[in-house]
TrEMBL record:
Ranges where the NAD-dependent epimerase/dehydratase domain occurs: 4-213
CDD domains on file: SDR_a1 (cd05265)
Gene3D superfamilies: NAD(P)-binding Rossmann-like Domain (3.40.50.720)
Domain of life per record: Bacteria
Protein known as: Nucleoside-diphosphate-sugar epimerase
Listed InterPro entries: Epimerase_deHydtase (IPR001509), Lipid_A_modif_metabolic_enz (IPR050177), NAD(P)-bd_dom_sf (IPR036291)
One Pfam family hit: Epimerase
Length: 340
C-alpha cells in the first residue's frame, strides 16, 4: 500500500508516518525538503503550491492514499483535486475541530455538530475547504475522508490556553519565576488534549479503509480537564506553585493587540467541549488513547526543561501579560476605593 504525505514532518504527521511505516505502508513525503525525511520514506521535493512542478513530479505515480496535512483553504483543496483526481483511491484532509459551532448549542460534540465559527478565520477557511471536498465527492466521486483533530501535541511542549508568537516557553518561565499566569475566564471550562501517538492510531486506521470514504471524523482523547487543572499539572511538574490570575476572555480578546485571541479563545479554547469518539471507534475498533493528559503534560515539561533549544524567550508576550495583570489589579483597586 502506497501513501503520499503532503507535509509529513509536523507535530501530528510525524507519528502518523512512523505508525503507518510500522504497519507496512510505503510512504512518500512531498515537501520543500527543509526537514529531514524519516528513514525508509521516499521523498519528492516540491512546493505543493507550485501545481505544475508537483504534477510533473508525480506524473508516473499512483497512490492508495494521499494525506494532506498542510492544506488550509478552499483554493488549496481545489488544486489538490486537480492534481489527484485520478491518482489516489483516498484523499485524507486534515481539517480542525475548531470548525465546530461557536458558540456551542451543546457541549457534547459529534461529527454532525454544525460547522460554524464567526470568531476565527482559520476555522472558516477549513470549513470552506471541507465544503469544496464534499461537493467534489458528491458530484465526481472524489474519494475524500475528512479528519478533524482538536488540541494535538507530541510531548515536546506543555500546552497552554494562550501564548505569544514565540511559543509556550514564556508561560513556563513565568511559573518558574513565581509570576502571575493568566488563565482565561474562571478556568473551569473543559478541554481535551490528545497525544500525537494516540491520534496516529485513529488516523492510520482510516488509511485504506473503504468505509471511511465520504466520511468526517474527529480523533481525540475521551479525557477532559479544566484549564485550572491543566495549569496546575504543569506547575506541579515544575515543582512550583501556580499563581493564577483569571481574566475575562472577551477582555483578553479586545486587548490582544498583536495576538488573535478572539479566534483562539472565543473561537476555540474557552468553550467547554466533550468529544464523542463513537464514530472513529466504530470504523477503527482498536483506536484507544493510552497517554493520559496529566502524563503527557508532565512529559512535555520534562522535555522542554531538558532541551534548552526549545526555551525561546518572548519578552513582548511577557510585557503584554504584565500589562493585562496590572490593568486587572488596577480595576480591583479602583472598585475597592469606590466603596470607601
Amino acid at each position: 500500500m502506497k501513501a503520499l504525505f503532503i507535509g509529513g514532518t509536523g507535530t501530528i504527521s510525524t507519528d502518523v508516518v512512523a505508525l503507518a511505516q510500522q504497519r507496512g505502508w510505503e510512504i512518500t513525503l512531498l515537501n520543500r525538503g527543509s526537514k529531514k525525511v524519516p528513514e525508509r520514506a521516499r521523498s519528492v521535493v516540491a512546493d505543493i503550491h507550485d501545481e505544475l512542478a508537483v504534477a510533473k513530479a508525480i506524473e508516473d505515480e499512483n497512490y492508495d492514499v494521499v494525506a494532506q496535512f498542510i492544506g488550509y483553504t478552499a483554493e488549496d483543496v481545489e488544486r489538490d483535486i486537480r492534481l489527484f483526481q485520478n491518482k489516489t483511491k483516498q484523499y485524507i484532509f486534515i481539517s480542525s475541530a475548531s470548525a465546530y459551532q461557536k458558540p456551542l448549542a451543546d457541549y457534547h460534540i459529534t461529527e454532525s455538530t454544525p460547522l460554524m465559527n464567526p470568531y476565527w478565520q482559520y476555522s472558516r477557511d477549513k470549513i470552506a475547504a471541507e465544503e469544496v471536498l464534499l461537493s467534489a465527492y458528491r458530484k465526481n466521486g472524489f474519494p475524500i475522508t475528512i479528519v478533524r483533530p482538536s488540541h494535538t501535541y507530541n510531548g515536546e511542549k506543555p500546552l497552554v490556553c494562550m501564548h505569544g508568537n514565540k511559543g509556550n516557553w514564556q508561560i513556563v518561565k513565568r511559573i518558574l519565576e513565581g509570576k502571575s499566569v493568566i488563565i482565561p475566564g474562571d478556568g473551569t471550562s473543559l478541554w481535551t488534549l490528545t497525544h500525537s501517538k494516540d491520534f496516529a492510531k485513529g488516523y492510520v486506521g482510516l488509511m485504506g479503509n473503504p468505509h471511511a470514504i465520504g466520511n468526517a471524523f474527529h480523533i481525540t482523547s475521551d479525557e477532559s480537564m479544566t484549564w485550572n487543572q491543566i495549569y496546575e499539572t504543569i506547575a506541579e511538574a515544575l515543582g512550583k506553585p501556580l499563581n493564577a490570575l483569571h481574566v475575562a476572555s472577551d477582555f483578553l480578546a479586545r486587548h490582544g493587540e498583536m495576538y488573535d485571541f478572539t479566534g483562539e479563545l472565543l473561537g476555540d479554547k474557552v468553550n467547554t467541549v466533550k468529544f464523542d469518539n463513537s464514530k472513529i471507534k466504530r470504523f477503527v475498533p482498536d483506536f484507544i488513547c493510552t497517554i493520559s493528559m496529566a502524563e503527557g503534560l508532565r512529559q512535555s515539561v520534562e522535555y522542554m526543561l531538558a532541551h534548552p533549544e526549545t526555551q525561546i524567550p518572548d519578552p513582548d508576550f511577557d510585557f503584554w501579560c504584565d500589562r493585562i495583570i496590572d490593568a486587572q489589579r488596577a480595576a480591583d483597586d479602583a472598585f475597592e476605593a469606590s466603596a470607601k
